[in-house]
């Protein structure tokens, strides 16, 4: 894809466990363009987080990347040494963690934690001494101001337990953005927050994206969040991408039965009084999967042809889905 | 609870809050004060001791304490078999006990922290190696091995420190390893990795401050232990050599005259007792303050 900042092709990340081999990410291809916000949706265990942990080179043992290419800004990330990879993390690609309440170090002040990233990555700072400390302090105050934390000068000296949940999430975003990364991976940035704060944090990410011109990969299981904040969306199911395309198309005219099911299970005012339609069944066990369509067991439109491997099919100019019903080709 | 207690003042750390709990514990504070007094005594020994600790005077051989018949108030705790002032020797002996206690604990804690962090964070063969060394050293009887080492190396201040520190480090190492195993899985460590932090940075900057509290508690408890061990070695004649005053060797000196001159052994013995007791109670207070399970 042209103009892609991050391009992942056929990524396979496997976990060797005692119970067997789990293919948590199975042939996933993702592209994030410059300046865009890509939403990644899926249930727990669908492989969203592992996909981006693979991009960051942060897959924990016993997991490992088996195959695939990860190209970021023209560089092959899988070919980098651990040292080169450390330089990419935090400076070019930053990540915010799921749980803001535990993602800040309780023993260090907020100022120290912002300063650490700047120390590690910012080459525009003066080499050493008072000028450097001053520049770091100024940049830290600026970052806290950017994420909307009032009286930043005094707040820098405080410790994480002195902040509310929403503020900690903002601080984490400030830390992630301190070196103006080209890509922000926001892994469920709002799960630990209450609804009003969720809206504020997402608004903040959108604002900063516009201001800094960075790309955002927003991992979430909330389709409402995607509809409001993302340019494109990718739906994952059991380690595979099942549908991707522009947000309006995917939300407005979903092609994959799983996406349709997800949308149908959202309660909305227009359907007041009617029962909600959840997707029946469970996500399949990732150990020893048959080569059939992974959604087969839960699909309302399944047929015999679904027992063969299903590839992604074009459902529009930029809209793809992994379902044999697309294109009238039902065999 | 008042509102003030729930909303801590700006820049209050967990460490500082724990210390506040500690200073609220009167008995622990009293004992901490006693420890401080001993330290002051050791540091300012030349100004505090009424006499030269090594000055012999055979006319004062086994002179009783000041309040007994035949005693003199200028030699308040009496004199030993060579006529040396016992109080002065106790004051100087504090130097040896406290110096060895502090140095052994500092060396052992530093080694233990580094080994524990490396084992707990790096895992793999590093953990295997360090953990096996720790297991093996734990299998050695402490005092017997120290006696053997001293017999091999000969007496001397630095030899004692080595003989005690060689094994002492395994205790902080195990504590730090355990805490590190828990801490390394926390989100903020993952977050630091996602921000491009190096392994050394994560170990020393992200994990270490969060595992320090139990290490401080263990270090103080163990210091009392080390002081007793040093006294034991000196008692057995393997520690600091005469004429340098050491509490353990002073107790040993008095053994032969227990019936006629009980004061020669008793006062240095009491000094050991008070110092160790004070350190133990103070460290209990520290533990109560630092360990959330013990606070109300």
Automatic annotation (TrEMBL), chain A:
One of its GO terms (molecular function) is ATP binding. It catalyses: Ni(2+)(out) + ATP + H2O = Ni(2+)(in) + ADP + phosphate + H(+). InterPro entries: AAA+_ATPase, ABC_Ni/Peptide_Import, ABC_transporter-like_ATP-bd, ABC_transporter-like_CS, Oligopep_ABC_C, P-loop_NTPase. It is a peripheral membrane protein. The keyword Transmembrane does not apply. It is found in: Cell inner membrane. Belongs to the ABC transporter superfamily. The complex is composed of two ATP-binding proteins (NikD and NikE), two transmembrane proteins (NikB and NikC) and a solute-binding protein (NikA). This is Nickel import system ATP-binding protein NikD.
UniProtKB/TrEMBL annotation, chain B:
It is found in: Cell membrane. CDD domains: TM_PBP2 (cd06261). Pfam families: BPD_transp_1 (PF00528), OppC_N (PF12911). Gene3D superfamilies: MetI-like. Its main location: membrane. It is a multi-pass membrane protein. Residues 94-283 form the ABC transmembrane type-1 domain. It comes from the Bacteria. The chain crosses the membrane at residues 27-49, 96-122, 142-166, 211-241, 261-283. Keywords: Cell membrane, Membrane, Peptide transport, Protein transport, Transmembrane, Transmembrane helix, Transport. Belongs to the binding-protein-dependent transport system permease family. This is Peptide ABC transporter permease. It comes from Thioclava marina.
């Amino acid at each position: 894809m042209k103009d892609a900042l991050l391009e992942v092709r056929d990524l396979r990340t496997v976990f060797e466990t005692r119970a067997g081999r789990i293919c948590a990410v199975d042939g996933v291809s993702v592209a994030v363009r410059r300046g865009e916000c890509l939403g990644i949706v899926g249930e727990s265990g669908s492989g969203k987080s592992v996909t981006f942990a693979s991009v960051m080179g942060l897959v924990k043992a016993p997991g490992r990347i088996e195959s695939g290419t990860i190209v970021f800004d023209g560089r092959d990330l899988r070919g980098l040494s651990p040292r080169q990879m450390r330089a990419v993390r935090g400076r070019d690609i930053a990540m915010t963690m799921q749980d803001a309440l535990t993602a800040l170090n309780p023993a260090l002040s907020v100022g120290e934690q912002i300063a650490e990233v700047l120390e590690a990555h910012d080459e525009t700072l003066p080499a050493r001494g008072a000028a450097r400390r001053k520049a770091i302090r100024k940049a830290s105050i600026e970052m806290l101001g950017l994420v909307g934390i009032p009286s930043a000068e005094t707040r820098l000296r405080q410790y994480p337990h002195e902040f509310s949940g929403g503020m900690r999430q903002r601080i984490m975003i400030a830390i992630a953005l301190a070196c103006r990364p080209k890509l922000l991976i926001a892994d469920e940035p709002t799960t630990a927050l209450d609804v009003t704060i969720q809206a504020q944090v997402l608004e903040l990410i959108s604002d900063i994206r516009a201001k800094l011109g960075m790309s955002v990969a927003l991992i979430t299981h909330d389709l409402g969040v995607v509809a409001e904040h993302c340019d494109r969306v990718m739906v994952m199911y059991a380690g595979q991408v099942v549908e991707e395309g522009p947000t309006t198309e995917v939300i407005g005219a979903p092609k994959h039965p799983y996406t349709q099911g997800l949308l149908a299970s959202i309660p909305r005012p227009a359907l007041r009084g009617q029962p909600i339609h959840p997707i029946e069944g469970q996500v399949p066990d990732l150990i020893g999967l048959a080569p059939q369509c992974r959604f087969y067991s839960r699909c309302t439109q399944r047929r015999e042809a679904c027992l063969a491997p299903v590839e992604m099919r074009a459902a529009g100019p930029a809209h793809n889905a992994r379902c044999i019903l697309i294109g009238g080709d039902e065999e | 609870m008042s509102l003030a207690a729930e909303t801590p003042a700006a820049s209050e750390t967990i460490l500082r809050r724990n210390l506040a709990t500690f200073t609220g514990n009167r008995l622990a504070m009293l004992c901490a004060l006693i420890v401080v007094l001993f330290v002051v005594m050791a540091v300012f020994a030349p100004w505090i001791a009424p006499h030269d600790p090594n000055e012999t005077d055979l006319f004062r051989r086994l002179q009783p304490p000041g309040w007994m018949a035949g005693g003199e108030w200028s030699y308040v705790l009496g004199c030993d078999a060579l006529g040396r002032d016992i109080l002065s020797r106790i004051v100087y002996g504090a130097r040896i006990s406290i110096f060895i206690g502090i140095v052994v604990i500092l060396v052992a804690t530093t080694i233990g922290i580094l080994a524990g962090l490396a084992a707990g964070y790096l895992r793999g063969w590093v953990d295997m190696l360090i953990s096996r060394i720790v297991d093996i050293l734990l299998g050695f009887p402490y005092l017997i091995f120290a006696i053997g080492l001293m017999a091999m190396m000969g007496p001397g201040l630095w030899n004692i420190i080595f003989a005690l520190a060689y094994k002492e480090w395994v205790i902080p190492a195990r504590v730090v390893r355990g805490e590190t195993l828990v801490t390394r899985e926390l989100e903020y460590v993952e977050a630091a990795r996602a921000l491009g932090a190096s392994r050394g940075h994560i170990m020393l900057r992200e994990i270490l401050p969060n595992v320090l509290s139990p290490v401080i508690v263990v270090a103080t408890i163990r210091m009392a232990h080390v002081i007793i061990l040093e006294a034991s070695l000196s008692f057995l004649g393997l520690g600091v050599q005469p004429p340098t005053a050491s509490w353990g060797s002073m107790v040993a000196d008095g053994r032969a005259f227990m019936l006629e001159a009980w004061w020669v052994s008793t006062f240095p013995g009491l000094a050991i007792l008070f110092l160790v007791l004070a350190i133990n109670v103070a460290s209990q207070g520290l533990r109560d303050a630092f360990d959330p399970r013990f606070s109300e």
